[in-house]
Amino acid sequence: MFTSFILVGIGGFLGANARFIVSNWIKKKCSSSFPVATFVVNSVGSFLLGLFIGLHVSNNLQLLLGTGFLGAFTTFSTFQLESVQLAAEKKKKLSIIYLASSYTIGLLLAFLAYNLGILF
């Protein structure tokens, strides 16, 4: 049990820092009303989690990479907050596009990656 906590903790530490670095890099490269950084991070995270599960990685790797790293790398709370902020800023259409595309792309990437993982 202690090993599980350590694996999740290490993964979480690395994932949170990776999200911070990647998000800031994307924000510097792409100035937009659309929350591109969160969209990209969550899309990549959906793909990678689907792939890891499809590959049937060991329980320890699931804890380290899935629960820890990707749990901290992806960000549901920021996604929800940005959706609300867009609506509050009278950008309701953009908010709906953000919500719909995030869910659709996230599910599609997770599905594709899972099936890709099963092939290997």
Show the helix and strand layout.
Layout: H1 2-29, H2 36-54, H3 59-73, H4 76-88, H5 92-119
Helix pairs in contact: 1-2, 1-3, 2-3, 2-5, 4-5
Q: Low-confidence runs (pLDDT<50, min 5 residues)? A: none
Strand-residue proportion: under 5%
Element order: H for helix, E for strand: HHHHH
Q: How far apart are the first and last residues' alpha carbons, in Å?
A: 30 Å
Structural class: mainly alpha
Instruction: Assign an overall shape.
Output: globular
Describe this protein's structure.
With 120 residues, the chain is mainly alpha-helical. It contains 5 helices and no strands. It has helices spanning 2-29, 36-54, 59-73, 76-88, 92-119. The longest helix has 28 residues, at 2-29. The model has no long low-confidence stretch (mean pLDDT 96).
Produce a short descriptive summary.
With 120 residues, this protein is mainly α. The chain is 86% helix and 0% strand. The model has no long low-confidence stretch (mean pLDDT 96).
Q: What are the main properties of this structure?
A:
mainly alpha; 120 residues
